[in-house]
Amino acid sequence: MSAKTLLHKQYRTLAELWPTDPLRPNLTLQTLLQQRIARQFVQTVEGDEAIPTQNHPGPATTGSSGAEDGRPVVKFDESRAMREINALGSLLEDRYRKRYPVSDRILKPRGNPHYYENLMKELEQAPGRSWWETKLNAWKGYIRMK
CA-CA distance, 103 to 118, in Å (whole number)? Predict the structure, then answer.
């Protein structure tokens, strides 16, 4: 199995494992990653030297030579793909959250110790609200601020 095929498989797996955003179900990172995979792992086309790499800009070719959406085809850069896969994997595993835990001093500020708890509760309830409930809550917040 070639390195490009292996990287393509890893990239696809990460895209499939990425969680969907309940607040924006129609705008997901999965879709963006799948489009990027399609653009980045296209088959080699004629005149491969004329296609810019991800690190060095150059003349771009259009959708007629490989990309279906008309965006420029980008020459495959193995080292960049490996860095991107590593970054996505580390975010998916919460590697930085485990390495750099947030203290209670930050999560419970003195001025409003329940701020983040209330925010999380609000974010959990938001996707299930109707249009009317959303507008009513907005007005409640507006009146409270006055």
Answer: 18
Q: What letter represents residue 143's amino acid? A: I
Tell how many helices (H) and how many strands (E) occur in the chain.
7, 0
pTM: 0.62
* Distance (Å, whole) CA 102 – CA 108: 10
For residue 26, the SS3 value is coil
Claim to verify: residue 112 and residue 95 sit in the same structural domain: no
Same domain, 11 and 65: yes
List the domain range (segments joined by +) for residue 79: 3-99
Per-residue pLDDT of 7-38, as tens digits, reads: 889 999 999 999 888 888 888 888 888 888 88
Number of domains in the chain: 2
Find the length of the chain: 146
Instruction: Give the burial class of 125: count Cβ atoms within 10 A of its Cβ; 0-12 exposed, 13-18 middle, 19 or more buried.
Output: exposed
Residue 83 in tokens: 């860095």
Q: Which amino acid is at 109?
A: P
